[in-house]
Amino acid sequence: MSDKKRDLVFRFAHFAMGTTFEIMLAEEDEDYARQISQAVFAEIDRIKEIISRFNPTSEIGQINRMRAGQSLRIGIETYECLKMALMVQSQTNGAFDINVGSLMKYRGEPLFDKQLHRVDILEHLELSQKARGYAVKFLTAKEMEKPIVLDLDLGGIGKGYALDCTLEILSDWGVDRALVHGGTSTALSIGTPPEGEGQRKGWPVGIGGEWECPNTPKKIFLKDRALSGSGTEVKGDHIFDPRIDKPAKGHLSAWVSHPSAAIADALSTAFMVMNTEEVRIYCKEHPDVWTMVVIDSQTCEVFNPDISAQ
Description:
single chain
């Protein structure tokens, strides 16, 4: 790699999944960097078409129309994304739930309390991997007499998963220094930037917010890791606590770093719902998770501060 290559960073943007994705590439040739960005954005668009609940022909759109007892063959992308979502839901005791939309969609309707039954997808969604491919089955218990509501939404993990999928594309193009993010809420890094304060530590990524907590970082350095953030400052109380059927009150904001952007994305949502002690216990059990939660404008907690994300 030439010294010139280490001095240049090209930046490109693309709108997808309702937000703006950006990629910063350390390359010596702008045309080559642009081709890389186009391949990365094409991959993000491909993932969007597979997991979007707004597209009735997507695999998630088809799953949401399944009746209890039916099964559907799915691709590896949907399988992987659902598998990670179910894992995080189990680990957080339901604080992260991709079927929370079934609560919000039917709230206030007379049928909700009398005739509809929300699905705990940990019990009623079965993923399988066989020689012929991947499948999902919608299970139902015999004792259920009410119609079952299924409304999967991968919005809390989908952007992160799309970023993870770009790693293979970047590897194929020989990229060893890059940062790609989706709407500034989730970022994924490869290597370190070619110059500046992060040249040895990693790509500097800001942690936004109007809070003023002493002895807590306003940015961290990412090297082969992801960072995801969720909060109430921009959109207000938009995160729902599926455990109590009310807006989440756990924290003002939550920032999570993990090697997987999908996991970081999901956990940042879950940690908005969970209380601080629950987050503390989770991070103690998962030492690869760096976390900062903002409790109020002057109180923050940082967990696993010694890992490379800080």
